[in-house]
Amino acid sequence: MRGMAGKNGGLGLAWATMLALAGCTVAAPPAPDPAPEPEAQAAPPERPDTPYSGPVARHYAAVERRRIAQDLLRLDRAPRDLPISASLIERAFAEVALRDEYQVGQDRIIQQSSPAALRRWEGPVRLSLEFAQTVPDTIRTRDRGVVTRFASRLARLADHPVQITSGRGNFSVLVLDENARRAIGPRLRALVPGIDRASQNLVENLPLSVSCLVLAFSRDGTNVYSDAVAIIRAELPERTRDMCYFEEITQGLGLANDSPVARPSLFNDNAEFAVMTVLDEQLLRVLYDPRLRPGMTSAQARPIVRRIAAELMGGQS
C-alpha cells in the first residue's frame, strides 16, 4: 500500500506514502458516501457505547452486531481452530509486509496489488492521540488507556521504542466524527507538510465502507518511516473502534497489507478478528528483527524470514 514518491514544493522534501485501509475496496477517486443500509436505520442498542446517534453511528452499530452474529470480530488471540506454523508466518509476512494493495497517485488512490520493499521505523515511534470536540471525556480516558497499553505491547513485541505522548508525536491518531473529518485538511497539512492531494481527499471524503485508515510517510522518500497519521471514526462502536486502533497502528509500523493468507490475523479484509493475534505478534517480531533491513525485496528478505520464523516456532515448520 505504498504510494508513489512525490515532491514537497514548500519544504523541498521527497515523501513516500503508504496507505492502509480497513475493510474496503477503494474506487479512485473516492465516491460519495452511500446511504446507510436499511438495517442501519434500525434503532441503536439500548445502551450504545458511543455518544453518537446519527445515521453513521447507526450504520456501524448494525455492522458490528451483524459481524458478531456471524462469528466475526473474534476476541481470541490464539484460536485453537487456526494453529500457526513457521511456514504460515513466512507466507503471511511476504503478503502483509512485502506487498501493497493500493498506490497513491497525484490525485487519486488506485487499487493495484504489487510487490513492495520492506518498510519500518528506525527511530522511536511517539503516538499522539487527538479527539474531535464531540468525543466525551469518558471515551477519551478509556481509549487513551487502550492505546497506551497497546503501545507498550507493541514495544515489547518489536523490541523497538513505541510509546504514547502528550506532546508532539510523529504518529498521530485522530479520532474524528463526520464533521471534524471533513474539515481536517488544515490539520493534516500541519502534521504532514506537503501531503499529497490524493491522501487528503481520501480522508476528507472517506467512503462509508472505510472504518479507519493509516497513512505512513518517509520524509526522504526511502523505506524508513518518519511520520504517520491514523484516522479512526469516532462513531464506531467500542469493539470495532478498538480493532481500528490495533490494526491501523500496527499497519503504520510496517505491516501494511491485508491478505486472506494472514489468518488468524487483523490483516485480513474479512474482519474475522478484532484483536492482535499470535500470528500478528510473530509478524511484528519478524519485521523488527535486526537481520532484516528497510528496502529489502521479497527475494532478499524471504530466506531470512524463513530462518526467523523457524526460530520463533522452535524449529517447527
Structural class: alpha/beta
Radius of gyration: 19 Å
Low-confidence sequence ranges: 1-14, 23-47
- Average pLDDT works out at 86
Task: Give the secondary structure arrangement, pairings included.
Elements lengths: L5 E3 L4 E9 L33 H15 L16 H12 L1 E6 L4 E7 L4 E2 L3 E7 L5 H22 L3 E3 L6 E6 L1 H5 L2 H7 L5 H8 L7 E7 L5 E2 L1 E7 L4 H14 L26 H10 L10 H15 L5
Parallel strand pairs: 5-10, 6-7, 6-8, 8-11
Antiparallel strand pairs: 1-2, 2-9, 3-4, 9-11
Helix pairs in contact: 2-8, 2-9, 3-7
Structural summary, described in words:
With 317 residues, the chain is of the alpha/beta class. It has one domain (6-32, 73-312). It is 34% helix and 19% strand. The chain is built from nine helices and eleven strands. It has helices spanning 55-69, 86-97, 137-158, 178-182, 185-191, 197-204, 238-251, 278-287, 298-312; strands spanning 6-8, 13-21, 99-104, 109-115, 120-121, 125-131, 162-164, 171-176, 212-218, 224-225, 227-233. It has a seven-stranded mixed sheet. It has a two-stranded antiparallel sheet with strand order 3-4. The two termini are 29 Å apart. The model is unreliable at 1-14 and 23-47 (pLDDT under 50).
